[in-house]
Write a structure and sequence with these properties.
Number of strands: 7
Strand content: 5-15%
Number of helices: 7
Low-confidence stretches: none
Mean pLDDT: 89
Helix content: 40-55%
Largest sheet: 5 strands, parallel
Structural class: alpha/beta
Length: 203
Amino acid sequence: MPSSQRPPTDVFLNIPYDTQFQELCLAFICGITVLGFIPRATLEIPGGSRRLDRIFNLVQDCRHSIHDLSRVELDYKRPPTPRFNMPFELGLSVAWERSGKKEHTWFVFEARAHRLTKSLSDLNGTDEYVHGGMVTGVFRELCSAFVRPGGQTSVQHIRKVYREIEKSLPKILKRSGSKSIYNARVFRDLCVIAKLSAQEDAS
């Protein structure tokens, strides 16, 4: 069962793990953090139990989830295959929200407007957050999705934290011994530095 101790600020981040998405991944981490939430991802899931169970437990742990479907496309490496992980994990989140056992809000992000009505027509009528495949677009749409009472976080604030993360990335990768940001330790370090940078910028 999911832990009852997780804070309501946890956000499950369902995105493609590939080099072409790296800048947008960093943008999501920065934006979620600056907005006062905690990014969570399957990258941090340890071994030892069935992966599907671990993913669903992580979804259950989180108060919100973001599902980026902009890369649900045909991979032309043999055999040519579409990528189903992102819509599958979206389905898990929708099922969890519909169960009513715990409050959960999910958001669908896309690169192009109206493509969702073709790729996943069961979600017709759902508001999609279209970032245009741009870092600034991710910032803008996150601010729209997570509208909070009181003062609102600016895109400029998130961009400043993003630049700090970019500068820190080579050192983070070197410390971890990884060439990819899609690594459990790298993901954790990115989240920590984003939080520290956001706090320093706000002080």
